[in-house]
Amino acid sequence: MMSLKYAKRMDNIKASEIRELLKLTQQPHIISFAGGMPAPESFPIEEFKKVNQEVLENNGALAMQYGPTEGYLPLREVIAKRMKKLQVDATAENVLVTSGSQQGLDFAAKIFINPGDIIVCESPTYLGAINAFKAYEPKFIEVSTDDHGMDMEELEEVLKSNDNVKFIYVIPDFQNPSGKTWSVERRKKLVELANKYNVAIIEDNPYGELRFEGEILPAIKHFDTEGRVAFLGTFSKILSPGLRLGWVVADKEFLSKFILVKQGADLQSSTISQVEVAKFLEIYDLDEHIQKIIELYRHRRNVMMEAIEKEFPKEVKYTYPEGGLFTWIVLPEYMNARELAARALEYNVAYVPGGSFFPNGGNENTARLNYSNMNDEKIREGIKALGKVIKEALRTN
Amino acid sequence: MMSLKYAKRMDNIKASEIRELLKLTQQPHIISFAGGMPAPESFPIEEFKKVNQEVLENNGALAMQYGPTEGYLPLREVIAKRMKKLQVDATAENVLVTSGSQQGLDFAAKIFINPGDIIVCESPTYLGAINAFKAYEPKFIEVSTDDHGMDMEELEEVLKSNDNVKFIYVIPDFQNPSGKTWSVERRKKLVELANKYNVAIIEDNPYGELRFEGEILPAIKHFDTEGRVAFLGTFSKILSPGLRLGWVVADKEFLSKFILVKQGADLQSSTISQVEVAKFLEIYDLDEHIQKIIELYRHRRNVMMEAIEKEFPKEVKYTYPEGGLFTWIVLPEYMNARELAARALEYNVAYVPGGSFFPNGGNENTARLNYSNMNDEKIREGIKALGKVIKEALRTN
Question: What mean pLDDT do residues B358-381 have?
Fold first, then answer.
């Protein structure tokens, strides 16, 4: 047969390196620092058994039926209330329930991007966002980041000299992949610049509540005075990713665009998952549950960082993350983390080469390491093997 | 503030009339023929209580974790097997699990449509598909249908004279909205024409198994010799729409495009829903369950059709559906079903005006009536009221 004639956008989309890697790393002998998977021992399985029985017993017909596109109202209400933790004022009317925050990323690009329009992002930025956005044929402009967030002078230069920037995409807390967190000053300044140059901000915040030390910072959305920030949240990292429930918080008019797009995309997110999560939030204390996750991940962060300090040569730089799931490794420039990944796999250790997190390429001397999904022993063993692989690659000139 | 600069496609998208109506019709005093909602008394609530406990007891960590984009393998396997009912040969490799078949519609357009490309569809066609497709800025060419499917001569004329047709979208069984079913000959002929003119076919089949009389017909996919048919199925009408689980069946290469797009759109569908449905299919007999739904809907179809025959004036034409959820009303040309809908609401009766099902407009003298979601008494009362509204609108010249 003649081959089917696909849309131009399909030339732009390739399989996610992470999701392909995940298939490989599901083999039990692999020590995987590759995914962003929560620790399964943190899942509230017993609680969900109880929640499910209550929901089906008392509310089964509603839970198994179609529901509104915006989401299940009691869940939207409690999501709105929980936003106070990040100092965001919201009501149910500001909340759309999505199928994971990934869907919010897809919708953001769908709402804003004509082919050739510009998305400004951190350098590096989340691979899953790059893949979602690429389907809408944007150009990416990466802005340098340091330990406090984006470089604001560089950002203003970009906004000043490009009039088709549609939005700035940022992950301000324990960024995926870099593990870094924006300062309060940069958050404020970002909103000022977005106001000045009339662009939107997509704030992706899957890890903000998973802070190991210090105070939770106000979300960028907290500083939004003109309704141009859309905040994306998710239950994936604080409850269960298998539920596929996330949310968008935005001002009503802005949110209405997300709702319109949601109707066409999949009508609504799972009613039964929504009713169950609402019931969970009613009868259990999610913050108490999150505290347990924090303790587990803080411990694993400690184990990984101690092992890195011990096993990696001094030529390697890395982030000491104050929360979230990842640390970020910068190798000497002459090293290629993709080549080393193949070597590491011979030791049954997997990670994601960092180059994938730069939409415009380069930076092949970087790597993302996840610590949430492996036990202490595997973390130590895996980092030791990685240290060996890196040391072998050192130029000893 | 200056207003945000949305993408051009957003001018194309408007709220689904059905989903907006649904909000209204959730009030208990409304007799709603408007939605396409399954009868809640058909939901296997007790069975799902058992299924959920088994899944969380024995497989909880897997069910609450991320899973592969393609879907949960045991579920894909059983979906592939069940396709035999429609005479489609498939293995798990041909199956992608989606978030309802609505997501398959969105993906079809995302895969194929550059702005201005043509989608050929039945006239009328499914409103939810029109809305999903419109986000990708296609042109629609509607092809006339009779009681046996699309007019094949008219279709060939369209394909011959337009070289940017990307796919033909059809709902061959108990079509939404018309309630009509394609003959076997037309199904064969459709594939022949798609082969000849090198276009894809998107076969949307949410109701095929809900046949009240006669034999289930082979799917259009059954006649696919060149891998150009993508079949969309769903558990919404045979199990529960609240689960949001559907599927795409296609040849491997074609399916790989859907999988790529799924990664960006929402990573994967709910793991827990997938594991639960797979368990349901393992310990219960879905075909037995479907038989109960068929008996319920056949009865309601009978009640509605008898009431229509009794209450509607002879000037009204309608489909006698052999399955599915809908009948279709053609009023005298001078009537406007949108205006009558407002009148009907005064009697607390709702339906969807048919004009919404024609992507290029017109045909305002038509209406879709759903019979799956109301009991006998309400169906009789609602049709009686509608009959009254229509009779009042008759010109008695």
Answer: 97
Whether residue A162 contacts residue A22, with contact meaning beta carbons closer than 8 Å, is answered with no
Which of B266, B283, B300 is the endpoint of a domain?
B283
In this predicted structure, the answer to whether residue A139 has a pLDDT above a threshold of 70 is yes
Whether omega before B218 lies within 30 degrees of 0, making that bond cis, reads no
What residues of chain B, 194 to 253, have a C-beta less than 8 Å from chain A?
195, 198, 200, 226-228, 236, 240-244
Longest dimension (CA), chain A: 72
Cβ-defined contact of B4 to A200 (cutoff 8 Å) = yes
The alpha-carbon gap from B322 to the nearest alpha carbon of chain A, in Å, equals: 24
Cβ pair A72, A278 in contact under 8 A? yes
B3 within a domain of the structure (yes/no): no
Residues 250-309 of chain B whose Cβ lies under 8 A from any Cβ of chain A: 254, 257, 259-261, 263-273
Same domain, B34 and B50: no
The answer on A22 and A58 residing in a single domain is no
Tell me if B22 and A63 make a contact (CB, 8 A cut-off).
no
> What single DSSP character describes residue A352?
E
Q: Report CB contact under 8 Å: B261, A8.
A: no
A361–B contact, CB cutoff 8 A: no
Q: Which residue has the tokens 């000849």?
A: B196
**Same domain for B181 and B167:** yes
Q: What percent of chain B has pLDDT over 90?
A: 93
Confidence of residue B1 (pLDDT cuts 50, 70, 90): low
Q: Work out the mean pLDDT of chain A and round it to a whole number.
A: 95
Beta carbon pairs, A and B, within 8 Å: 261
User: Distance between the two ends of chain A, CA-based, in angstroms?
Assistant: 57
Range of the domain at B58: 45-283
User: What CATH number is associated with residue A198?
Assistant: 3.40.640.10
- A20 close to B (CB below 8 A): no
B343 inside 8 A of chain A by CB? no
Q: Which of B252, B283, B314 is the last residue of a domain?
A: B283
Minimal Cβ distance to B244: which of A57, A236, A266: A266
- For B48, half-sphere exposure in the C-beta direction (CA atoms, 13 angstrom radius) is 27
Count of CA atoms in the C-beta half-sphere (13 A) of B345: 15
- Radius of gyration in angstroms for the set of CA atoms belonging to chain B, rounded to a whole number: 21
Quick check: B7 and A102 CB within 8 A? no
Q: Do A99 and B102 touch (CB under 8 A)?
A: no
The count of other CB atoms within 10 Å of the CB of residue A185 is: 11
Alpha carbon distances (Å) from B317 to B312, B320, B329: 9, 10, 6
Cβ contact, residue pair B270, A270, below 8 Å:
yes
Domain check: are A55 and A136 in the same one?
yes
Identify the residue among A50, A51, A201, A263 best suited for mutation to test binding to B, counting B beta carbons within 10 A and taking the highest: A263
Do residues A128 and A195 share a domain?
yes
One domain, residues A292 and A274? no
Q: To the nearest whole angstrom, how far is the Cα of B25 from the nearest Cα of chain A?
A: 12
Same structural domain for residues B246 and B303? no
Overall average pLDDT of the A352-368 stretch: 96
Could you give the number of structural domains in chain B? 2
Closest CB to A112: pick one of B6, B64, B267. Answer: B6
Is A220 contained in some domain? yes
Looking at residue A28, what is its pLDDT? 83
Residue A19: pLDDT band by 50, 70, 90 thresholds?
low
Residue B2 lies in a domain: no
Chain A (154-173) residues lying within 8 Å, Cβ to Cβ, of chain B: 166
Which residues of A are less than 8 Å from B248 in CB distance? none
B306 found inside a domain: yes
Query: pTM for this structure?
Result: 0.96
Helix axes A184-197 and A152-161, enclosed angle (nearest 10): 10
Per DSSP, chain A holds a count of helices (H) and strands (E) of 12, 14
What pLDDT, on a 0 to 100 scale, did the predictor assign at position B162? 97
Query: ipTM of the predicted structure?
Result: 0.96
Do A51 and A34 lie in one domain? The reply is no
Tell me: pLDDT of A252 over 70: yes
